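Example for tutorial group B:
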C-alpha cells in the first residue's frame, strides 16, 4: 500500500517538471525568433545603405515619323528610239534606261519615268530631270538656266539613202523624210541653198518605209536607230549612209532646272563606273561616229 501511495504522490511532481521544461523551451524559441528577426532587419538596413542612389531616367520622347522619300521624276520621250531608249511602252528598255536605273539604284533613290510627247518634257514643270537634252537644242532661247550632265552617249544624225546611192550629193536630193518632233537644224541650215523639201513622218520606222518604197530620196534618222529598224524589217542592207550628205553628232545629256545636285552625282557616277558604262555601250552596239559608214 505504501508503494502505491508513493507512486501517486510523485505524479504531480513529474507533471510540474514537464510543464517547466516546456515553458523554458518555448521562451528559448521566442528569443531565437526575436533575434532572427532583428538580425534580418539589421542586415536589410545595411544592404540598403550600400546601394547607390537611383538616377532618374528621363522619359524618351517618341521620334517624329520619317517623311516618305519623294521619287525623282525623270521626263523622257514617249517613243521607241532603240537601242538608245524605248519609252513607248510601260517597260522601259535600251541603253539610257539601263544606265540611269543603275545610277539611281546605287544612289538608293526612288525614281519614276514620266513619258511625255517629244518637246513637251523640256517645258514641263513636273520634271526633276529630262533626258535626252542638249544645250544645242535651246540656243535660240538666249540664256539657258538648265544644268547639263556629261553626255551619256553620242548619237549620229545621219542622212540615209537606198543601197547603191551612197555617192549622191545633196544637190541631187529632192526630198528627205524626217520623224515628227525632231528638228533637223543641220538640214534647215542647208535647205535655203538647196532645193530639197522635208517630209514629216509619224516616226523613224515610217520614214524608212517611205525611203524603201521610193517615196522620198533620203531620210534623216539616227544611225543606230536606223540599223535596228532595218534589221527588224529584215532589210539590213536596204539602206546606207550617204557619204556626201549631212551628218551631225549630238551628245545626249541629262538636264535639270530643279535638282542640280543630281547632275553632280550623275557625273560622279559616270566617271566612277566608266568601265561599266563602256561595256554597256559596246553591248548595245553604240559604235563610234567614225565607224558609221552604213547601217549594216
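The residue assignment follows.
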Amino acid at each position: 500500500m505504501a508503494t502505491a501511495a508513493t507512486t501517486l504522490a510523485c505524479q504531480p511532481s513529474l507533471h510540474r517538471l514537464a510543464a517547466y521544461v516546456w515553458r523554458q523551451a518555448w521562451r528559448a524559441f521566442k528569443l531565437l525568433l526575436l533575434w532572427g528577426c532583428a538580425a534580418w532587419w539589421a542586415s536589410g538596413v545595411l544592404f540598403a545603405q550600400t546601394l547607390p542612389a537611383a538616377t532618374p531616367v528621363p522619359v524618351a520622347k517618341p521620334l517624329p515619323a520619317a517623311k516618305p522619300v519623294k521619287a525623282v521624276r525623270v521626263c523622257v520621250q514617249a517613243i521607241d528610239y532603240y537601242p538608245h531608249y524605248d519609252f513607248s511602252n510601260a517597260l522601259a528598255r535600251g541603253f539610257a534606261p539601263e544606265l540611269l536605273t543603275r545610277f539611281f539604284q546605287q544612289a538608293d533613290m526612288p525614281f519614276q519615268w514620266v513619258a511625255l510627247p517629244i518637246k513637251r518634257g523640256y517645258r514641263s514643270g513636273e520634271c526633276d530631270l529630262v533626258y535626252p537634252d542638249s544645250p544645242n537644242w535651246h540656243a535660240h532661247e538666249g540664256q539657258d538656266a538648265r544644268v547639263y550632265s556629261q553626255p551619256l552617249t553620242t548619237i549620229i544624225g545621219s542622212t540615209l539613202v537606198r543601197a547603191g546611192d551612197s555617192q549622191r550629193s545633196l544637190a541631187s536630193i529632192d526630198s528627205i523624210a524626217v520623224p515628227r518632233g525632231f528638228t533637223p537644224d543641220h538640214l534647215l541650215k542647208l535647205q535655203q541653198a538647196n532645193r530639197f523639201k522635208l517630209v514629216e513622218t509619224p516616226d523613224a520606222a515610217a520614214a524608212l518605209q517611205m525611203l524603201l518604197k521610193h517615196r522620198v530620196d533620203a531620210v534623216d534618222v539616227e544611225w543606230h536607230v536606223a540599223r535596228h529598224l532595218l534589221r527588224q524589217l529584215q532589210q539590213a542592207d536596204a539602206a546606207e549612209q550617204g557619204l556626201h550628205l549631212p551628218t551631225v553628232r549630238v551628245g545626249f545629256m541629262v538636264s535639270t532646272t530643279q535638282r542640280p545636285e543630281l547632275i553632280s552625282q550623275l557625273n560622279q557616277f559616270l566617271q566612277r563606273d566608266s568601265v561599266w558604262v563602256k561595256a554597256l555601250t559596246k553591248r548595245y552596239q553604240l559604235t563610234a561616229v567614225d565607224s558609221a559608214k552604213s547601217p549594216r
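DSSP finds seven helices and twelve strands in the chain. Compare this with the pattern of hydrophobic and polar residues in the output above.
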